[in-house]
Amino acid sequence: MTNDATEMSIDTAVYKTLLESTEAIPWKIDWATLRFAYIGPQIERLLGWSQGSWVGIDDWVERMHPEDRSWVVDFCVAQSKAGVDHEADYRALTAEGNYVWIRDVVHVVRNDKGEVEALVGFMFDISERKKSEEKLLQLQRELQELSYQDGLTGVANRRLLDSVLEVEWASAQRGGQPLSFIMLDIDCFKQYNDHYGHLAGDDCLRRVAQILAASILRPRDLLARFGGEEFALVLPETDLESARQVAERCRAAISDASIPHRASDVSHLVTVSMGVTTANPADGGGQASLIEKADRLLYRAKQNGRDQIVAD
């Protein structure tokens, strides 16, 4: 054996030792046969499948989560045929029947003619990273939900109300459907706070919000805290008479709850006043006019003695 051959043999052994001492799992696939020319022994520690069981590309495919299999295989084959280096994240099946998140980093090897000769790469265990990413995404979802939620009552806040009203207005405009809006105010709420205290006032707001939420029967209907002791309901595809019936159901539910209010000028129980209106967005205008009209009708209900509904 020549010195060059000896040095090459030593270098190969060194490289192999280095590769097999890393956490990453090295592998090589012959492109012509789609068979593994090599896969590192670390694969057994990670997935439980023996090194010798990785014969061809089918073994790789079959040990992939069914939900990931189609797109990962299609993507990797397309990129490999095009001679483009790439990477893919997917869930790999362990011998025990569990799944581990893998990142496969692939390098395309070409021959002297520029033809794809082999694929070489590394598999990385990214399970912990994926767990961290999922926790972060969950936190982001929770923060987003909180940004659209009233902190006191738990119902939608004014920000979400405005967004939904804009969307529903556009939808009603396209479909030629009516859109109804209810503005609701707890009667003599300042006196309630003065008499029972602000903590009790907060409890009252939460109770009213719960009663109103239970009175909504359709998924698209939205209840939101408009501000202070005022609430609003958006009722898509609802005419004025149907909206008035919803308002009456809400008013009756609050009355049936019998929440004491000894300081009220209207009743010894908590009552509400409501303004109910309907628009046909296809006729023009904007959602601001809907809110303004409901607010005027609410004011009229309070001027007329409270504990009533004014609809127009």
UniProtKB/TrEMBL annotation:
GO terms for biological process: cell adhesion involved in single-species biofilm formation; negative regulation of bacterial-type flagellum-dependent cell motility. GO terms for cellular component: plasma membrane. The lineage of its organism: Bacteria, Pseudomonadati, Pseudomonadota, Gammaproteobacteria, Oceanospirillales. It catalyses: 2 GTP = 3',3'-c-di-GMP + 2 diphosphate. Its cofactor is Mg(2+). InterPro entries: Diguanylate_Cyclase, GGDEF_dom, Nucleotide_cyclase, PAC, PAS, PAS-assoc_C, PAS-like_dom_sf, PAS_fold_3. This is diguanylate cyclase. Its EC number is 2.7.7.65. Residues 86-138 form the PAC domain. Residues 11-70 form the PAS domain. It comes from Halomonas chromatireducens.
